UniProtKB/TrEMBL annotation:
UniProt keyword list: Membrane, Transmembrane, Transmembrane helix
Organism ancestry: Bacteria, Bacillati, Bacillota, Bacilli, Lactobacillales
InterPro entries from the UniProt entry: Uncharacterised_YhfT (IPR019733)
Transmembrane segments annotated in the record for this chain: 6-30, 51-78, 98-118, 130-153, 165-184, 196-215, 240-264, 276-303, 309-334, 367-397, 409-428
One of the Pfam families matching this protein, by short name: YhfT
Keyword Membrane: yes
Protein name: YhfT family protein
Length: 431
């Protein structure tokens, strides 16, 4: 193995170990849905078994349904495949010093096993009679453009359908105008064109923030929140060294271009569009700042990857692991120290503070429908029109289950299952 390959394995082991320790000690978790549950455990309202069960319930479906399936067949791991599992490992191990050590060990083993396992799965698929890996590459195709629609959905959710429709219309017009007119030919014959999708997303994000900023404050609720939960903010600051260490590790992984925080940045990295991935990551991070900071203040538990801007920092410093570690370490420290100041500043614009939850829901809905369409395209490539029947059928049946998979998971799992089924049918001569 060359140096970069060895470094990649070391990084996933460290992310697995440190991330699991953070969750075990209640310092940070990656799943936004788990973070509000942590104070219930700190205050004795739920026990360790209930915390572990909750962690498993809110994270496992995303790991097996989105994190791992979306990562299979690519050179870029989705953060969910490692960091959500860290949450599970950390909460399932005892809340003791030995428990932290056990969590770190299991997390490190899992990280390496994930890398080895994905490589083995890819080799296995390539050796099958029906190689459906090329079809799986279609899973993320709709996401690249559909992602630009999420700000309109967030605006509609927060400010009403009328403003959402206006945002959608402006987004579409931006895409058309940039596609047709943002093309320049230089004297040497080189053609430069702005990315229509990226510009459409940028305009949509600006409109989303503009509408949110119009909501005026009616009091000092967020400042009071900081005062009431000062002890919890202090708890996060007390653990800055652990958070900064994790920030440095994740930033190095991002600088190696094999680790992405979201499906859109991951798909862009797979296509070699590093600049596009950086922009998509920054756009995502901006939207999640209010959510991450407000939940941290209330719970005393930070996000494993912070506001996720460290992923963009890492990509900007690609191929420079030492500098990336220092930058990520420092940036995470800045985020932690800025909790009080940022929270008080957000009080002036409560609409922006409240925007985080709407963005989270809009992102989830947008990616879910895009993955469903991408899965249908993949299945159609594998088996013709019957592929649509397969994906739509399982999507609808999933809703009738007592414990349905999250919407994000259904399409990718159905596509992989169809690929395996087709190979079995080929063996018995039915396909």
């Amino acid at each position: 193995m060359d140096f970069n390959t060895v470094l990649d394995y070391v990084l996933v082991a460290l992310m697995g170990a440190v991330g699991s320790i953070l969750a075990n000690r209640g310092i940070a978790v990656f799943n936004d849905g788990l973070r509000p549950i942590m104070p219930e455990y700190f205050e004795g309202k739920i026990d360790r078994k209930e915390l572990a069960a909750t962690s498993f319930a809110v994270s496992f479906g995303l790991v097996i349904g989105m994190g791992i399936p979306v990562s299979i067949g690519t050179t870029v791991l989705l953060a969910h495949s490692i960091l959500l599992t860290d949450d599970i490992i950390g909460t399932w191990t005892p809340d003791t010093k030995w428990g932290s050590a056990i969590a770190g060990g299991i997390g490190a083993i899992y990280g390496v096993a994930l890398m080895l396992g994905l490589s083995s799965i890819v080799k296995l698929f390539n050796a099958m009679p029906v190689n459906f890996m090329p079809a799986l590459s279609l899973l993320g195709t709709p996401i690249l453009l559909a992602f630009a629609a999420f700000p309109a959905l967030a605006v509609a959710s927060q400010h009403g359908a009328k403003k959402g429709i206006i945002t959608m219309g402006v987004t579409f017009v931006t895409w058309l105008v940039v596609s047709k007119f943002a093309i320049w030919k230089l004297a040497n014959g080189t053609t430069i064109q702005l990315d229509p999708t990226g510009m459409a997303l940028l305009v949509a994000m600006i409109m989303m923030i503009f509408f949110a900023a119009q909501v005026k404050s009616t009091g000092d609720s967020n400042t009071q929140l900081v005062n009431v939960f000062a002890e919890r903010v202090s708890r996060i600051k007390h653990n800055w060294i652990w958070l900064s260490l994790m920030g440095g590790i994740i930033t190095v992984a991002a600088s190696q271009l094999f680790f992405a925080v979201g499906v859109l940045p991951q798909q862009l990295l797979v296509k070699g569009d590093v600049n596009g991935a950086i922009f998509a990551t920054v756009a995502r991070a901006i939207g999640f700042v209010p959510l991450v900071f407000s939940t941290a203040i209330v719970t005393g538990v930070y996000a494993t990857a912070g506001t996720t801007l460290i992923f963009a920092i890492g990509m900007l410093l690609k191929g420079q692991p030492i500098l990336a570690f220092v930058a990520g370490f420092a940036w995470m420290w800045i985020e932690v120290q800025a909790l009080n100041v940022t929270a008080k500043g957000l009080d002036r614009f409560p609409g922006i503070r409240d925007m985080g939850e709407h963005i989270r829901t809009a992102l989830s809905d947008t990616i879910a429908i895009a993955l469903l369409i991408g899965s249908a395209m993949a299945c159609s490539k594998m088996a013709g029109n019957v592929g649509y029947f397969w994906v739509i059928g399982w999507w609808l049946l999933n809703r009738k289950l007592k414990k349905p998979l999250v919407d994000l998971a259904v399409g990718p799992i159905a596509a992989i299952a169809l690929g395996v089924l087709l190979n079995l049918l080929r063996v018995v001569g039915l396909f």
